[in-house]
Protein 1
Amino acid sequence: MRIRISPEETRLLQELILEHCGVNLGVDAGFLFERRLGVRLEALSLASFREYFHYLSYDLDGPAELEDCIERITTHETYFFREQFQLDAFRQEIIPQLVHGDAGGRGPAVWSAGCSTGEEAYTIAMLLAEAAPQAASLVIGSDISRKVLATAQQGVYGPASFRTTDDAVRDRQFLPAGPGLWRVPPSIRRMCSFVHLNLLEVARYATLGRLDVIFCRNVLMYLSSPARHRIVEAFYDALVPGGFLLLGHSESLLNVTTRFDLVHLSSDLVYRRPA
């Protein structure tokens, strides 16, 4: 029998999650909690969502359970070569600018923030390898979910990850890894590293090193306005002068006070830290 959640219990959990990672779950939060977290109450022998809130807040195992809670209520939707028009702009206009301006031969450093299971990070690495094969480029993928990062590190994917990828491209870029599975080739995997990171932990951005481009696509839409502002400002500081921020097609900084310039490319609008 499903344990029901009260409006007050919903508010308590919403505020806890909002404070932890900035995710704003909206009006359907109660239904989401009942559907996705009810099994955890049963596993922990808890009688109510209020008891679950206290467990998350005060139990010694609360931090680990909170990670699992966030895992269950967040979205991890991605696939290879997503939003191709933006990737074309990255490949045709942004990469040449970065490589041309780098006299030392160091390749661009790109951060895929909220990389989920890794398809975006590997897509970026493939585009860099094709457009700047002599440059030692680096792609960092980060996510708040350790589960999806484990999938990213394995680099093995099924048909859903190639839903918009031509079979010819898939067969050329990837290695067979069993029936209905393909593996990212070693040359691309060596360009990528994956780290566990809560985007609200902005002080940790410095550990990623200097960054030329940040992809943060379809992440900000799930965050509260204060969280978006805090993260975007930290993105600005993490980028080198002249660096680019690329958001999802349904996102913008229109309602976020920011120091970024809006740049019109031939096939996309992107944000840039002034040089």
Note: Residues 122 and 188 are 7 Å apart (CA to CA).
Protein 2
Amino acid sequence: MRIYKVGGAVRDRLLGIPVTDIDWVVVGATTEEMLAKGFRPVGADFPVFLHPKSGEEYALARTERKSGRGYGGFTFHASPEVTLEEDLIRRDLTINAMAEDDQQNLIDPYHGQRDLEARLLRHVSPAFAEDPLRVLRVARFAARYAALGFTVAPETLELMRQLSESGELEALTPERSWKEISRALMEDQPQVFIEVLRACGALKVLMPEVDALFGVPQPPAHHPEIDTGAHTLSVLEQAALHKQPLTVRWACLLHDLGKGLTPEEEWPRHIAHEFKGLKLIKAVNERFKAPRDCQELAMLVGEYHTHGHRALELKPSTLLELLQSFDVYRRPQRFEEFIAACEMDARGREGLEERSYPQADYLRGASTAARTVAVQPLLEKGFKGPELGEAIKRERLKALKAYKEQV
């Protein structure tokens, strides 16, 4: 039995960045031997075990063979005869196909260290094209390591293009796709993820609604960058720079989908794009089974982001309707995330990245004014049922009028 550290832990140590997860491969062992040493088995598909003390994952060396469509369409074979090199060749990228022994000696049969130095994301073998999930994974790694100068090797991008055209991407489950998409959106440069997917034709397959935004012009007075797709990438970039949570980043990606539906003869104006985009946002949400908080915020930002930008001009009654739509009385955090998405949208414009956004504080103040209306005095006056609801609404409207005059 020989044990090797593999994959990301080796890669990140060589890059000089913090190692978060450590994976191990066990060569020359059987399932029975692992169990005898106290390892706990996990997963039904292939033999992976948890260390009895550290809880880290130890996998028996294995080979794999394509047996069906999609990410799960593989047959695995694990036995004491499988070599470390055979295990490593089934991995996606050369930089993830390196191992270390217990003396920290590097085992690098597929030249991962060379590609690390060249800042290249390159596939290990032609078998890369058998797993459609790798298209998303490579795009995610491109987003993660973009700041270090990494790019996708041309021949790997070509394989990703072939995968995108093959129909294999449609075999991915929503859960697996969302796992990669959500992780990619939380990288430091999530816009690179979208750029790489677009470069290999995968964006057109996975999110045609986002792909359709590229080449669609907007009024230069509001959008110096003009192109709607370029704007979306900039908004996503701003969301990452400002450390926004996943909900906000997802909403930023989808907020302008309605502009992809505008007839060319109406360009560069996009009348009512907020409402037109809702059915598209709903479709993308459902396609990837996004978590409910991501779905809800994306829909609300899509519908109301222009309200956010015009906050200072809104009538008190419109402002009240906006607050009601977000249920700020029970869910103030969701409104805070809406404000953040609006600010990212305002900053995601060429040359305007540092602009101030007074609408943010104004909206926060309006929310506070409406939420501080006390219900108890109205109850004491005898209001109840629908009459109480109307009385609360009147008092909140009064509070918002006072707030607007004061500001």
Note: Residues 376-406 form one domain.
Protein 3
Amino acid sequence: MSDMMQTTLCKSVSYDGIGLHAGLPVHMILHPAAANTGIQFVRADLAGTPAVPALLPYVTNTMRATTLEKGEAKVFTVEHVLSALQGLCVDNCIVEMNSPEPPVADGSSAVFVDMIKEAGIRELDAVRNVHAVQEQHLIQEDDKFIAILPYDGFRITFTSINPHPLLGVQFFDAVVTEASYVKEIAFARTIAFTEELEMMRKLGLGKGGSVENAVVYDRETCLSQLRIDDELVRHKVLDIIGDLSLTGKQLKGHVIAVKSSHKLNNLLARQIYEEMN
């Protein structure tokens, strides 16, 4: 398969689960889509099955997760599905859901990677939309920042600094390819802290979370079984891949981040989007 041509799935595949924050049951189907469709989320449970494209102009919230909204079509916590599609270079896909939130699955993107592999990927008769970043972009907030530099490929270098005694400083660097995404990134689960969970519950968030689908830390210990010592920083990279996919193109650039978040990722994506347009 050529790196230059757009792709989609060979067939539809489905998965049943619950959403991380709303805790609602959801039936999600990944469908093949025509060239230049991009990634679209369809709400099958709403009248007229409204859709929202996975593009920056439709992002309405980045608190703890990424929310997309267009008219009646609202979906949130979409970054893990988007990360899997981007990581495996799927350019066009209809994500149909009968609930506002994709399944949390195991808190990583591994289930979605498996779905994509089960469906198979096929090439389309259209040239892939690629954007090579032309200049440095930087977003900084206190001691957090994320930047992107021109680079022939897609590389992410992330430093996580956390005061928890079991976490401290974690560093991860990878040239993101389909192979490295599947082997080094996709399995890393989202992280939560018990003191945050109480606050999240009051905000109506995290209702579908558990020690199975998130790596949960209390003040001193880890309540979950880690898959790898630096699972936190690898998941941060997984999130960046999903958040930057909202530019609507495969990117070429070197992302360098320290303690970045969905908010900062989104602000960087907006700068890249402005450069593109």
Note: The chain has a mean pLDDT of 92.
